[in-house]
Amino acid sequence: MSGNSLVIDTNIILYLLNGDETLIPVLEEKQLYISFITQMELLSFHKINEHDKKIIKSFIKDCIVIDIPYDIKKLAIELRKKCNVKLPDAIIAATSLFLNAPIVTADRGFKKMDQDINLVFYEKE
C-alpha cells in the first residue's frame, strides 16, 4: 500500500458531509478506503432521509470498500482481545492494518489501539 492511502472511520465521513472543511487537506489527493462496517453504519442510520442517502452513496462510490477476508478477521480478533475494544472498531482498525494504511478517526476508543495501529486522531474544534 502506498503512502497515499488512508482508511477513514464513520465519524470522519459524517464530519465531512456536515461541512467540516478542516479535514480536506488531510484527505485530498489520497486513496480513501472504508471498512464494510463504516458502509453499514452510514447506510443503516434510522433517521437517514433519501437526500442524505444519495449523498452518502455518492461518497462511498469515491472510496474503496473493504470486505472482511480471513486476515482482517484474524487481526480484529487479536486487537479486540489485546485492547478490549468494540468489535466494529476492531474490524475497522484491522482493515487499516491489513492495508498498511493510517486510519483517520475522531473516536477516542481507537486510542486504546494506538500502540498497534497507525492512528491519525482528529479532534473537532
Automatic annotation (TrEMBL):
Annotated InterPro entries: PIN-like_dom_sf (IPR029060), PIN_dom (IPR002716), Type_II_TA_system_RNase (IPR050556)
Positions of the PIN domain: 7-114
Keywords: Hydrolase, Magnesium, Metal-binding, Nuclease, Toxin-antitoxin system
Gene Ontology MF terms in the entry: hydrolase activity; metal ion binding; nuclease activity
UniProt cofactor(s): Mg(2+)
Tagged with keyword Phosphoprotein: no
Protein family per UniProt: Belongs to the PINc/VapC protein family.
PANTHER family per the UniProt record, alphabetical: RIBONUCLEASE VAPC2
Protein name: Twitching motility protein PilT
Organism of this sequence: Draconibacterium orientale
